Amino acid sequence: MRLPARLLSLAAASALLTGCFSASSGSGDVSSGGERIRVAMMQPPRSGLSPLSDDAFKLSRWSTAETLVKLDEDGDAEPALATEWRQSGREWTFTVRDGVTFHDGTRLTPEDVVRSLTEAATASPKPRILDGVELTAKAEGDSVVVTTAEEDPLVPQRLSSPQLSILAAKAYAGKTVDPVGAGTGPFELTKVNGTSSANLDRYDQYWGGKAKAPGIDVKFVPDGTARAAALRSGEADIVEAVPVSQAAVLDQDLITEVPMPRTNTLYLNTEKGVFKDPAVRAAAREAVDAKSIVKGVYEGRADVAEGLLGPALPWAEGLRSPVKRAKAGDAPAETITIGTFTDRAELPEAAATLQQQLRKAGFKVKLEIREYANIESDALAGKFDAFLLSRATVLDSGDPAAYLYSDFGSKGSFNIPQLADGKVDKALAKAAALKTGDARRKAVIEAEAAVLATDAAVPLLHERVIQGDAARVAGVAHDPRERELVTAETRVK
């Protein structure tokens, strides 16, 4: 039920945050240029803020770690730490920007770039953006030559992934990658307090110009009601992922709603259990009513999925054609387990709704719900019959082919449905080989159709990001790809 969350007192929710920003403030001098930005983020770090994990996107959203390339609104590559690049077959040559210093005072060199890229390319597991990609890097003068085993038209887009951030040598001195004081962005990460908070100070020698705010104080607040309360009470200036249940009761002038390249999908285990049978997967797909989930759980603040790719990629809809799927069989006698996580406030309720819908179709269903950090490894190991996931579809490269390979390729590192399908692999390989443009987009939709034909994934809806910004702040980024949040332009008015 949604009512109890709405009736939770503001005082009770605020208690989860009261004093957290004042107690964790960094060393920035307020008198030297405005007030520090207070941010309430949804998920705590899962890997000690290692850029080789999904934590990399926090480093990007705080503008502390940077990449060779960044993406514009259309997903095209633009200069960042590299000023230009050119391709020659399997080789891409990137000219490294001159005059950049790391936060520890050392100067950015091509050798630093090679070190960071090599660490990522040889990591186990690799960052998702390098799934299926063999990549090496070497320094040549003021440039870095990146070579792939196969000709890859997406190398610049791949190198825009925050998981391929360029850090100073000190970051790699220990057993794990430590980004504290090792980035190149307008804000220096100065302190990380486990999974509770982090502090960043303005880096005045930033190559792109001095940031307008003296620093950032971050609090990790998994509880969505508490995040919303922090915005209402003035405890936070920027709030990530305001839950749908809270959006309606907030000042509408303080929230921004943007269609995201993020799809809520029910992944079905194709390797073992009842969903190994395509007819049972088809029965589950037919039992699902996504419209009622959008209306009831998301209160209309989401879009019913027509496929894996949503309205944030407007070109997708016009390229689709009907998908031929297996005929539905009978519901099995065995009980199935659906896993999901609490970090995104709507998912447990969506899972409960799915449980009711599947039971109505004859399935016996139980739910297993934990925090994401405590359930991801089991999901990837195929320990659930089904898993409900909120998944960004162009998060890594700006191109959905990488997401499709990672999640549905037989060698993909995020293959929760444990799918190994020759037709899918062939379609993914075709899409990956094409240059960016219309032909590649058409091939991506063909790959999407190949995945949907297996019923390994039942797309439910496409989320809209609901971000809260206090009236006193300006220059906050509203990024559908979730790469930017606090930028050099963000400030307290």
Radius of gyration: 23 Å
Low-confidence stretches: 1-12, 23-31
**Net shape:** globular
Note the gap between the termini: 39 Å
Description:
Helices cover about 25% and strands about 25% of the residues. The protein has about 500 residues and is an alpha+beta fold. The strands form four sheets. Strands 1, 8, 9, 10, 11, 12, 13, 14, 15, 16 and 17 form an eleven-stranded mixed beta sheet that branches. A hairpin with a 2-residue loop joins strand 4 (about 80-90) and strand 5 (about 90-95). Helix 14 runs antiparallel to helix 15 (about 440-455). The chain is globular and about 65 Å long. The model is unreliable at about 1-10 and about 25-30 (pLDDT under 50).
Short précis:
The chain is of the alpha+beta class and 493 residues long. The protein contains 15 helices and 19 strands. Strands 1, 8, 9, 10, 11, 12, 13, 14, 15, 16 and 17 form an 11-stranded mixed sheet that branches. It has a 4-stranded antiparallel sheet with strand order 4-5-7-6, with helices on one face. It has a two-stranded antiparallel ribbon with strand order 2-3.
Which features characterize this protein?
19 strands, 493 residues, four-stranded antiparallel beta sheet, globular, alpha+beta, 15 helices
